């Protein structure tokens, strides 16, 4: 299994942007789905988006579609989450997760679907 490390979190004003990164080590992400989740205080971990490394296919939930974009950087074995038009409700710890799979079309949305997790990066949004 790959090891994941997130970076890019911080404090931003409402309406601003941040770009989170998830760096994988210990192997290539080929054959993996990589997802971003977030968890706000007192709330369950929420699935946001996923990318199929093999074909670049992406899926974004309704909650973030149009504001957040998941993408990959092949040479760096890295996945990004570009977050625009941030709102105070977006404040949370953001996690990336990876699942090794041969499926191309399945959208894995549950925490338990994913085998590898990063330690999280905190995003704070001031109003």
Task: Please describe what this structure looks like.
With 127 residues, this protein is mainly β. It has no helices and eleven strands. It has strands at 3-7, 10-13, 18-25, 32-39, 46-52, 58-60, 68-73, 78-83, 92-100, 116-117, 121-126. It is globular. The termini are far apart. The model has no long low-confidence stretch (mean pLDDT 96).
How many β-strand runs? 11
Oligomer: single chain
Which consecutive residue ranges, at least 5 long each, have pLDDT under 50? none
Order of helices and strands: EEEEEEEEEEE
Query: How far apart are the termini?
Result: 39 Å
The total of helices stands at 0
Shape: globular
Helicity level, as a percent range?
under 10%
Mean pLDDT rating: 96
Question: Which class of secondary structure composition applies to the elements?
Answer: mainly beta
Instruction: Please indicate the percent range of residues in DSSP E strands (runs of 2 or more).
Output: over 45%
Largest sheet: 7 strands, mixed
Cα-atom Rg, whole angstroms? Answer: 14 Å
């Amino acid at each position: 299994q790959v090891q994941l490390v997130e970076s890019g979190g911080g404090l931003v004003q409402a309406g601003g942007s941040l770009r989170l990164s998830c760096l994988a080590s210990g192997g290539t992400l080929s054959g993996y789905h990589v997802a971003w989740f977030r968890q706000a205080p007192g709330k369950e971990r929420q699935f946001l988006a996923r990318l199929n490394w093999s074909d670049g296919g992406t899926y974004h939930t309704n909650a973030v579609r149009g504001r957040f974009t998941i993408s990959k950087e092949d040479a760096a074995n890295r996945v990004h989450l570009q977050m625009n038009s941030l709102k105070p409700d977006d404040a949370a710890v953001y996690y990336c997760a990876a699942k090794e799979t041969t499926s191309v079309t399945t959208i894995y949305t549950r925490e338990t679907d994913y085998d590898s997790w990063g330690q999280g990066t905190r995003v704070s949004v001031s109003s």
